[in-house]
Batch of 4 targets.
Target 1
Amino acid sequence: MAIKDIFKISRKTFFNPSGWLDVENLGLIFKTTWLITRRLFIPAEPTHQETFEEAVKRLNITEEDIEQKKKVYVFATCLFLIFGITAFLLSFYWLFVFHTFSGFLIGLATSSLFLVQAFRYNFWYFQTQHRKLGCTVDEWWEGKLNSEKGPKS
């Protein structure tokens, strides 16, 4: 190796903002974040449609299995709801007793994860109760508002 290559001094030796910011990697991070965000908010088209009865027949599920799953969904919904409310209250405890805003944010994030899981299991229970796959959130909401009427026939 030549001596001039060892002691090579150029503009990038002292001033290289693209190297400091790692522009190539930053662009890759933004592209990946955009792809993930787009997949979250733009739903993929389903590959095939299937009714509840077809799914029960295909999976060889009995009525007892369906009733057992409904009980599991209700139990999981209640459990995640209790955990979510507890984490929510605990986040305020951390905020006011220990004066930690970061603990408050962690508690809110944890409670939101628990509440999302509670919604998920309750939504599965709703679909199982109404024997319909592919329900929308609007149907779930209307079903919760009209829950005293029971499942639609």
Note: The mean pLDDT is 87.
Target 2
Amino acid sequence: MTLVEHLSELRRRVIISVVAFSVLATVAFVVYGHILSFLEGPYCRVAHPCQLYVTGPLDGLSLRIEIAAYGGAFLALPVVLWEMWRFITPGLKANEKRYAIPFLLSSIILFCLGAALAFLIFPHALQWLQSIGGPTLKEIYNPQRYLGLILALMAIFGIAFEFPVVLVSLELAGVVSPRTLSSWRRWAIFLIVLFAAIITPSSDPFSMTALAVPLYVFYEMSIVIGRILKR
């Protein structure tokens, strides 16, 4: 293919992705109530009644548009990844395709697992954040800030759970070896804990521990997987 043909193909893939996002964002806008109820779940487990308060007449509309955008991006992710795959595939060799599919699937699964873990531990994070200020404080949560926190936590956990994919890729590329990763174990523990403490937006010990422990397990798993693949 010529450069112009490549660009035309890329434009077609981008247009399909944008159309998918627009359609699914519209769907998310329609089912806004169900999505908001789902995201309020962790808050409702620790607060009764669980009500979010808006402070301006346009806050409700902006919240609905924001949820529609996030929902459309999440629902359209499989379509976007598929279009990226269809664009990249012709340039890959047979052995590269053999590795690419498992890496792509494992990346999606790990991201979803990380987001699900963040959602499950968020009630404990809320309880800690409510208790740290003392019993005399009364919480009145703004929906934008609440949703911003939980979505940021889910996104950070999802991205952090790509850690083993990155390590195994580096091992296959010969940048690092399983033996080198084993010798770095003590530093890895320190850096993983430090990373979890810095990157966790809620800054609560439950979220930091829930992020640091799986990352260290992934580190050890990457060493084992790297040894197997090298053989």
Note: The chain has a mean pLDDT of 87.
Target 3
Amino acid sequence: MGADILLLDLQGLTLITDYFVIATAETERQLNAMTEEIALEVQKEMDRAPLHIEGTAQGGWVLMDYGSVIVHLFLEKQRTYYDLESLWNKARTVVRIA
């Protein structure tokens, strides 16, 4: 399981998606496992595959595009560097699991 999981509601702020899910992994191995598990569970529960997956665990950031939901999985260093929470500070926080 990831750490500091955040669901942001972007509706009305952008046309690219409705929600961002942002989470942090402690290691590259955990980041890979999170990516695989999300893809498997979403496929199983909702019969949906990601439209696109971008990035790698080695790069510290994986983006999973499900259309209305985009999942951002980071290593801590990359999450701090890209700081999506500040870039999208007008988005409503739906839930945060710290």
Note: The chain has a mean pLDDT of 96.
Target 4
Amino acid sequence: MHVLPAPSIFLAALAFLSSSHADERAAFVTTLGRDTVAIESFTRSASHIEGDIVVRVPGTVLCHYALDLTSNGDVSRSVLDVKPLGDTKVPERHVTLDFTADSIRIDVDSAGHRTKSSRAREKGAYPQFMTGFGSSYGLYSSLGVYEVLIAHLGAAFDSVTIPSVDMATGRTVVRQFVRRSPTLVDADYFRIAFTHLTLDASGEIVSADASETTEKTESRRTGFIDVSQVAKQFVAADKAGKGLGIASPSEVAKGAVGDQQIVVTYSSPRRRNRSILGTVVPYGQVWRTGANEATLLFADHALEIGGTPIPAGTYSLWTLPKKDGSVQLIINAQHGQWGTDYDASHDVARVPMKVATAAAPQDDFTMAVTGSGGGGELRIAWDTFIWTVPITVK
């Protein structure tokens, strides 16, 4: 897996590397383009694994976890502490899960509000920790915990469906893990894609490629890092206005076409020194055209978009870029869904867009509605691509 260069703040963190053996102590550094978005360090023995994860989006949050392991690699207890350090609305949280063969006892203290419950444990249920907060939930899954799970499953499994117990809530979702080869395991990501885990001969994870998921991150194994010290640097960056903030902020584009206002709402991902077309935005696949929730267009009057009549209403917008350079704008009647939930059966129209190339790369994904007289256009721009389509009010 090609790993993009780490930013300077990570290079400073390398000063805290330990000389401990990799099979007992290790770390994972996760990047999104040029930016380090999460770092995990853990210490592992036959009966216990304990780790720290610092997440930078939307602000610095420090998570500490511990798992007690039985002799066969099952889990008897998990403990998780979530501590917000930066400017974030994430609540402080302490969660303990106690596992028996047939039950799970759940103790959650969230910002001083404590709840206790218990429920049946499904066969094969195993705890996992997926972090990231708000719209960035799913940004990073603990690779230390994945490594323990893979060891527990053994080398013989091909494909297994696991009741995955969220260490932060106690809730269970079904997830699939597929062993493609002795050194490649795929971890299900919300049933829409896989994170590709590369293992070495001893079964340790050496890298994780989430480029096919909505998060587009890459992770690599390093020597042990003192995460608490790195977290202090990230907090200082937050306070200096140099933190990462929300990964894809919500934006509103408004424009008048004739005497009517048209509104587009979308989330704006950042380029982060990545090549966009053909990678982040794949060719030949319908793209969510932004991030997070589906991009929406609101029109109180009937329109013509690219010469195609569109009745007044609310629509989700999608795009289909092709390797030959052409792009289609897809106008879909379904709205209010997440940006991964495209359903072609609700398509109202597909219209061609005009394609141009910018002189210099643009870091922020943008959309705009511009008008002049009775006509106007919808403009989509990111990196060096510019896509436009004419709009008129009927």
Note: The CA atoms of residues 231 and 287 lie 34 Å apart.
